[in-house]
Amino acid sequence: MSKLTAACIQLRSSDDAQQNTLIASDLIRQAQARGARLIATPENTCLMAPDGGAKLAMSETEERDPSLPKFCDLAHELKIWLLIGSLAIRLPGGKTANRSYLIDPSGRIAARYDKIHLFDVDLPSGETYRESNTVEPGDHLVTAETDFGRLGLTICYDLRFPQLYRALAKAGAEIISVPSAFTQTTGEAHWHVLLRARAIETGAFILAPAQGGRHANGRETFGHSLIIDPWGAILAEGGTEPGIILAELDLGKVAAVRARIPALRHDRPFT
Q1: 257 in a structural domain
Q2: What is the pLDDT of residues 92-151, one digit of tens each?
Q3: Which of 8, 50, 65, 222 could cross-link to 209 by cystine, CB 3.0-4.6 Å?
């Protein structure tokens, strides 16, 4: 399949996981009705808790997570590839994984990716984040073969580490997902330029579904979900409200762009 319609779902999730699941599911249905065969949701799809401790307390193991089987059933019903940007999954060591799931049209989990780079920062605005206090980082890159090409998985803060994206491209990724919950401060400064740079550097399509707006816990996220082509052109962009963006992806453009600028083949060792 050389062309497909892809969609990003933009959310404003709260700490009500059941309600968040219902809202996300409704938007996924709407996107499928508009022709999307690959649909991606943002980071923290089902839970934007007041803080990391609250999220940890509300998380479940993968086997007991209430939303995951619902999303698997939905993918099967709609016959779509569904990328759930991330869920907080409780691990044996007492922390959670910030885990992305790719679900195939049969409802099977085709890939899992645990966020590698954790958001531990003190922003000039006074905002402080310590994701590592409650989250265990992943340690390996993940790609998945689909019926439209190879998909590479990343999450949010990973965006600032271009070496991960280059490795995904060299592993054959033609589309890279970047589900996110960027802060308003960092989003205004860096969201567009970083995503366009990752598309240009890898010669891949970028799907970046985002959280957007002021959440019930007071946190404000940037929104502006984006779909970007391998040349760095923005194909679709959201605002700050929950909703759907769609674009047609011509996968033939990946090979064409990589042939035009063969930077992935020009890496050289250096000291």
Answers
A1: yes
A2: 989 999 999 999 999 999 999 999 999 998 988 788 889 999 999 999 999 999 999 999
A3: 8
Containing domain of residue 17, as a range?
3-261
The count of other CB atoms within 10 Å of the CB of residue 171 is 12
CATH of the domain at 149: 3.60.110.10
**Residue 1: per-residue pLDDT:** 64
Q: Using one digit for the tens of pLDDT, what is the confidence trace for 185-233?
A: 999 999 999 999 999 999 999 999 999 999 977 889 999 999 999 999 9
- Contact of 251 with 149, CB cutoff 8 Å: yes
**pTM, whole model, 2 decimals?**
0.96
For residue 269, being part of any structural domain is answered with: no
Which of 172, 154, 166 has the alpha carbon at shortest distance from 201? 166
Overall domain count for the chain: 1
- Give the DSSP letter of residue 79: T
**What is the pLDDT at residue 55?**
84
* Distance separating alpha carbons of residues 225 and 208, to the nearest angstrom: 6
Positive or negative, the CA dihedral 169, 209, 13, 125 is positive
Q: What is the DSSP letter of 137?
A: P
| In a domain? residue 17 | yes
Mind telling me the catalytic residues?
Answer: 43, 115, 156
User: Is position 139 within any domain?
Assistant: yes
Helix (H) or strand (E) holding 23: helix 17-33
Least confident range from 46-50, 75-79, 108-112, 139-143: namely 46-50
Q: Which backbone phi and psi does 66 adopt, to 5 degrees?
A: -75, -25
